[in-house]
Specification:
Layout lengths: L14 H9 L1 H13 L1 E3 H7 L6 H14 L2 E6 L2 E6 L1 H7 L3 H6 L2 H5 L25
Antiparallel strand pairs: 1-3, 2-3
Protein name: HTH arsR-type domain-containing protein
InterPro entries: ArsR-like_HTH (IPR011991), HTH_ArsR_DNA-bd_dom (IPR001845), WH-like_DNA-bd_sf (IPR036388), WH_DNA-bd_sf (IPR036390)
Organism: Fodinicola feengrottensis
């Protein structure tokens, strides 16, 4: 980990963790939206990406991206400013980010009414593992 213990050092970035973080359509959309912005406060990014997920779910996605080393989070007072770690990712995995994001427009164009949309849950497909009384 780096000196702030919240972001992995560039040499500690793992390909599997980066790919797993970018495999989720919501996280891929977040990265796709954040790249042209350079950096953005969380609330502005949530709005810019057009996400309909809750703030807590968005926070979870940020954590996954941060822990994988895809984004950097800088705390500025009460705001969290996010940016993509483009240089670190390019140095560790040359061309990977460009390759993964080449397919990203399909994610951004996904209809929000799709039953397979990442922000929707089909109750018929959810199983609980709590013991029955």
């Amino acid at each position: 980990m780096s000196s702030d213990d919240r972001h992995p050092a560039p040499s500690d970035l793992e390909l599997c963790a980066v790919l797993a973080a970018l495999a989720d359509p919501v996280r891929l959309l977040v990265v796709q939206t954040l790249l042209p912005l350079g950096s953005s406060p969380c609330n502005d990014l949530h709005h810019a990406a057009g996400l309909t997920i809750s703030r807590s779910t968005f926070s979870h996605h940020q954590k996954i991206l941060r822990e994988a080393g895809v984004i950097h989070e800088r705390i500025n007072g009460a705001r969290r400013i996010l940016s993509v770690r483009t240089e670190d990712l390019q140095a560790r995995f040359p061309g990977l980010l460009d390759l993964v994001l080449a397919d990203a427009p399909k994610v951004a164009a996904a209809p929000t009414t799709s039953r397979f949309h990442p922000t929707k849950v089909d109750p018929g497909r959810v199983r609980t593992f709590l013991p029955r009384r």
